[in-house]
Protein: SEC-C motif-containing protein
Organism: Albimonas pacifica
Amino acid sequence: MFHPCECGSGKTYAGCCGRLHLGAPARDEQALMRARYCAFCRGDEAYLRRSWAAETRPADLSLDPAQTWTGLTILSHETEGPDTARVRFTATWRRGARKGRLTETSRFRREGPGWVYVDGDLD
Ligand SMILES: [Zn+2]
């Protein structure tokens, strides 16, 4: 059965962010961005913590189970150096009858074979 990945890639979950959630390294900052968005959709706190730089990782993620993520759009991405990159994206959400969107520019850093999220600026 075709289970589309929540990140909107058009691939199956197992062939997309599911691989990263199981431990495969993100090959670039966009792949990590997608996998983290997908982890938010699935409430996968373990992956969110693992893919967060140690110095900025919050002690408590406190995901809100009532908030559903409904779409990801990567607006732009920019490599800053061999080991740092930025991704600008919009994510939409729903919470009961309320809907909203957030736009953030996120910073990522290469660590070992993969990438981690460092921090971001909301618009
Ligand atoms: Zn995906």
